Amino acid sequence: MPMKRSLLLPYFVLLIFATIQLALVSRMVAFLHIQKTQVKTYQALGSDSPLGFKIHVLPEKLSLNQGHTTNGAAGYGLVLSIALLAFTFSFRDDRDHTKKLLTMTILLALLSFFILSAFIYVFAVTYLTSNNRINTIYAQSIDGAPYPIDSWTPETWYKALLLLPLTNVDLTGAYQEMAVWRWWIIPYLIVSMLAFGWTAIVWLNERSFKQPKSNLAVSMYTCVISLS
Question: TM spans, by residue (predicted)?
């Protein structure tokens, strides 16, 4: 059945999308690590002092769970797509692969649910913290210590930082990448669901192709018994 080999297409596309998702989140993690260990504070212009004030690169209450969740979904998709490609390359058209296709369908269903959960969680947390703003008067008073007010995601924190008159630093690119990996979950979810649906169709086709043979064998066996 040549239709089994057609699974190479959705699995290859899934591999690409999972890799991009993983790369985007990894870039954010690397950026945050560099800011925390090397940069440490940003300099902002202050209304009361010509020298301005320092603000820590990360707030005290920074939630990274949405990044970990998305990273896990991307890693699972990456490993699974490679495994599925290997399985599909080993398929032979003259052999039955119903059980393998069923297993592949279940694994893709789990991936889709995983990505859907990440999508709901990430967008919910971002929405709940999207209206947070940095109190500049309080930020000046803590002199570069981690900002303790409100809970933040990396995206909403850097969105708030962009509203401050920071000097000698441009955080626009970093903020845009954080927004991109969040929105990238949507096409990644769509691709995973398409791969799941495609695999389910191939499995059903393989199952229906196998069924008539088994029915014919039962009929022949019944006929032999009745004649004897």
Answer: 73-89, 101-124, 181-204
